Amino acid sequence: MRREVFVSYHHGGDQTHYDDLSSVMHDRLQLFTDNSLERRINSADHAYIMRRIREHHLHGSSCTIVLCGADTWRRKYVDWEIQASLEQQMGLVGVWLPTLPLSNNGGTVKPARLQDNIDSGYAVWRTWRAISADPTVLTDAIELANNASVRLIDNTRARLDRNL
Prior knowledge:
This protein is 40% helix and 15% strand. The chain is α/β, with parallel strands linked by helices. The chain has a five-stranded parallel sheet, with helices on both faces. α1 links the parallel β1 and β2. It starts with a strand and ends in an 18-residue tail after the last helix.
């Protein structure tokens, strides 16, 4: 089954990876949505922005893929897109891009809400290297994410109100 998915990423830092992924996966996935909020919605009303995310950005998608590069964790709209995805009980897959360095403790710095859901067992975490070597790694991850128990969702973190 070809899934419709939404891809959340830092446009300023990871557009090339999005373009590569979209090109490789175009026959395997129904839709890669490139509707990022990096193209700002002209409003300060958080409720309105979240509604726009749900209705105009995530609509029709079963899963959100978060491309995690060096600065993804700092981006408020990536956090908001993850939050809205979890509110809709969509699957969640994080992808470790080559631009994401290891932290001092040997881990990676991911968007905090994504990390919460990796820790809870709801979100799936895969590497760019594995997906590049075998694109079925991503399609399998999407299926795994879509079949995760919604009871594992952790969406309790306060929403980022600005880029860090």
